From TrEMBL:
Pfam families recorded: EamA
Family matches, as Gene3D superfamilies: 1.10.3730.20
Protein name: Permease of the drug/metabolite transporter (DMT) superfamily
Domain EamA: 13-140, 153-287
Intracellular or extracellular location(s): Endomembrane system
Topology versus the membrane: Multi-pass membrane protein
Recorded superkingdom: Bacteria
Ranges annotated as spanning the membrane: 12-29, 41-58, 70-90, 96-118, 125-145, 151-171, 183-203, 215-237, 244-264, 270-287
UniProt keyword Ribonucleoprotein, yes or no: no
PANTHER family named in the record: ACYL-MALONYL CONDENSING ENZYME-RELATED, EAMA DOMAIN-CONTAINING PROTEIN
Length: 292
């Protein structure tokens, strides 16, 4: 019993590490002057480079797939690329607090998608929680519109980016049942990075000529929020309840907003704080009474 308790505590510790790690993502992106699609591309390519030494061990899973699996992997990678492009772009128009708070809607969208695709039922309290979260979203949107149309545009980009990552998660839920965390992440990261590379090529964005500071930011994004955040959460899915892992997104807006206040000197308005609490309460209610 003590051994199990210690083991669970270790997973809890890693869970907290993951939440803190992903919260740094918006800070690093704000520090960079590169295009969001370039940031996302190098963030993922550098992550793959770090993972490469272990690729030989998983060569069978990396090379052999059914046609259906390949289609799902491609769709998952494209949705992840779209998420990075939209959400990272939102940070150019709105604050970290407003942009990250919409990410808290991810578990709601994932469970809504599960209902539509897998026919997973939602009870009344879950629907009430979803309604409360949506009210908070409207409050932030209306308050940001009062500030500027740019801020509202950033909110819309963040919401669309959250929808994209929810679709990515739903596809991943199917693929992870037959694929290891390493193989899934490696392939999806590669597809997402290449999708962004094609986008950058079409847009004519430079692939080289970035300063050492920019390359340092790209590397920090690869190590901290990607490996110690997203990859860690996918690994924890094997040892922790999937619903509990997905609730990690609730901690990101809070920590990211505090980091932005401390490191970027971004002010937190009363509307953002109040509406943020409304969204978090709605999502918590939804997740608390949801079932696997």
């Amino acid at each position: 019993m003590n051994r199990a308790s210690k083991s669970f505590s270790a997973y809890e510790f890693l869970y907290i590490v993951g939440i803190i790690a992903i919260s740094f993502s918006s800070i690093f992106i704000k520090w960079s002057s590169a295009e969001p699609s370039v940031i996302g591309m190098y963030r993922l390519y550098l992550t793959i480079l770090i993972m490469l030494p272990l690729a030989w061990k998983y060569k069978q899973e990396l090379l052999f797939h059914t046609f259906r699996q390949l289609l799902l992997l491609f769709a998952s990678g494209v949705m992840l690329a779209l998420h990075f492009l939209l959400w990272m772009s939102s940070l150019n128009y709105t604050t970290v607090a407003s942009s990250t708070i919409f990410l808290a809607l991810e578990p709601v969208l994932v469970m809504l998608g599960s209902y539509l695709i897998f026919k997973t039922k939602a009870n009344k309290i879950m629907l009430i929680g979803m309604g409360i979260a949506m009210v908070g979203t409207v409050i932030i949107g209306s308050s940001d519109l009062a500030l500027s149309k740019e801020a509202l545009y950033g909110d819309v980009l963040s919401i669309l980016g959250t929808i994209a990552v929810a679709i990515h998660m739903l596809i991943g839920k199917q693929l992870r049942s037959t694929t290891s965390a390493f193989a899934y992440n490696f392939l999806v990261f590669a597809i997402a990075a290449t999708t962004l590379a094609v986008y950058n090529l079409i847009q004519g964005y430079p692939f080289t000529g970035y300063s050492k500071n920019e390359w340092g930011i790209f590397l920090l994004l690869a190590i901290v929020p990607t490996l110690f955040g997203h990859y860690l959460f996918n690994w924890l899915l094997k040892y922790m309840n999937a619903t509990a892992v997905s609730m990690s997104v609730l901690g990101e807006p809070v920590i990211a907003s505090l980091l932005a206040w401390a490191l970027l000197k971004e002010a937190l308005t009363g509307w953002q704080l109040g509406a943020g609490m409304v969204i978090l309460f709605g999502v918590w209610l939804f997740m608390r009474h949801g079932k696997e």
